[in-house]
Amino acid sequence: MTMTLNHSANSGQRKSLSGQIDRLDSILDGLDQALQGAIIDAVKEAVSVAVTEAVHRTVIEIVSHPQILQLLRGTVPTPSPAPSPTPSNSATARPVRRAWRWATTRLQGGFAAAADRVRAVRATVAGTCRQANAIWALKRPVAIALGVGAVVGMAAYASSPWLAGIVSGLSAAGAALGMQLVMFFRRLFAAPAH
Fold first, then answer.
1. Are 32 and 139 in contact (CB under 8 A)?
2. Cα–Cα distance between 62 and 118 in angstroms, integer?
3. Model pLDDT for residues 62-106, shown as the tens digit of each residue
4. Domain ranges of the chain
5. Given CA atoms 72, 74, 79, 80 in this order, what sign does their dihedral have?
6. Residue 108 pLDDT > 70, yes or no?
């Protein structure tokens, strides 16, 4: 009878493996959701900062460009006397055409500079998205590593100290050996420098 009492008293204290696995599963789900939210927030913030900075630089460059300033100052309407009818001849048409060519050339240069800035912003945003995708690709290996580490940690916690020491020593040796193998194969298969 005392055996059953001790057994039933210990069963309330000792957690079942399925309960621990369920708990670990819920922890991994929570980490997955938190990781998704953190990456989305980081990408939004990075894109927002990149776009704001690019627009700011573009406006400063456009406003500080002397030819664009001259063009803008020339577009302000000035009061002029009523035009007197004069016959159109080639002497007055030539300066108008020259001024028109000059203005269109300057506008094309300003538009080209603005288009270059937009391309730079697009490249920055694309680079940020590529970095976010590279980080996102590591989601599964990191979650697996955290899960294995948590299971091994719980097993070591529940076991005796000498077994926990052996498990942690073997784990550390395996991790060090794995890193050495990775570095060896990178050097082995690296392209030779010419």
1. yes
2. 13
3. 777 777 767 767 654 444 555 555 545 566 778 888 888 888 888
4. 34-72+97-137, 140-194
5. negative
6. yes
Distance CA 33, CA 38 (A): 9
Distance CA 185, CA 104 (A): 59
Residue 58, C-beta contacts closer than 8 angstroms, at least 6 positions apart:
113, 114, 117, 118
Q: Please give the structure tokens belonging to residue 187.
A: 């050097």
Q: What distance in Å separates the CA atoms of residue 152 and residue 171, rounded to the nearest whole number?
A: 9
C-alpha span between 106 and 52 (Å, rounded): 26
**Taking Cα atoms as reference points, which of 41, 48, 60 lies closest to residue 121?**
48
When comparing pLDDT for 169 and 67, which is higher? 169
Distance CA 117, CA 147 (A): 45
Joined together, the tokens standing for residue 157 give 């916690």
DSSP assignment of 154-172: HHHHHS-HHHHHHHHHHHH
CA R_g for the chain: 35
Whether this model's pTM surpasses 0.85: no
Quickly list H helices, the chain. 2-13, 17-64, 66-74, 90-137, 139-158, 161-189
110, 59 in Cβ contact below 8 A?
Answer: no
